[in-house]
């Protein structure tokens, strides 16, 4: 176990992720975990986050807990015994569960560990468990799923398989249109601290395999959660999210809420993010 007295600096951990030489995958059955002994919510950051997404000023929205713990997650990615290279990890989903109401002024302990690591058809599936506590009492737990893609294997059936598995688009008649662009992504980056170039820079995003910048995953989650929050639907106790496909920038997206599900759709009506309460 690696122990840090305070929350690591996000920008330093991000630079390590972006510029550390790619490592070989590890096959160890034991994986590292990181504990932050004392972490406090940045009042200015939370205020800016709530103002941007129009949440109540003193609230700690469910998606914010992920932002709060993200520096510790990056520190785990950078640990020499983390089983895969952090570069190229694809965020595929997460579950956030609030066990008890947290307070802005509380002192939190954050533990991030690898819950599971196993091979799948596309590479390796990594499951992280983030536990946020106050004086030993669980406040929030987050299970976050990532995919480490294996080298592409080209075959004659790959395009056909993609066509068969592709989900059908939604009707856009009853949706709310939301325009996303790089300028908005940069505003979110300033609030969250997530300056990953794949989200905010057209040229640098190409160096990391994207033709255009893509929207922050947690920006899309916060947008979707905020929309449902304002309609008095959803839950402040638990949310399940699946990331289906990236949202390229700039783009006019659409938000759709159906009972206990919310969807962020691209301009073609195809689902990028699905949220379930």
Class from secondary-structure proportions: alpha+beta
Largest sheet strand order = 1-2-4-5-6-3-8-11-10-9-7
**Strand count:** 11
Name the average pLDDT. Answer: 90
Largest sheet: 11 strands, mixed
Order of helices and strands: EHEHHEEEEHEHHHHEEEE
Give the overall shape. Answer: globular
How many angstroms does the end-to-end distance come to? 33 Å
Descriptive report:
This protein is of the alpha+beta class. 29% of the residues lie in helices and 32% in strands. The chain has eight helices and eleven strands. An eleven-stranded mixed sheet has the order 1-2-4-5-6-3-8-11-10-9-7. Strand 10 (261-265) and strand 11 form a beta hairpin. Helix 1 (10-19) crosses helix 3 (62-77) and helix 3 (62-77) packs antiparallel against helix 8 (217-230). The longest helix has 16 residues, at 62-77.
Topology:
Layout: E1 2-6, H1 10-19, E2 33-39, H2 43-53, H3 62-77, E3 89-98, E4 108-120, E5 123-134, E6 137-149, H4 158-165, E7 176-180, H5 182-192, H6 197-200, H7 202-207, H8 217-230, E8 238-243, E9 251-258, E10 261-265, E11 271-276
Helix pairs in contact: 1-3, 3-8
Pfam families: MaoC_dehydratas (PF01575)
Domain MaoC-like: 169-244
Protein name: MaoC/PaaZ C-terminal domain-containing protein
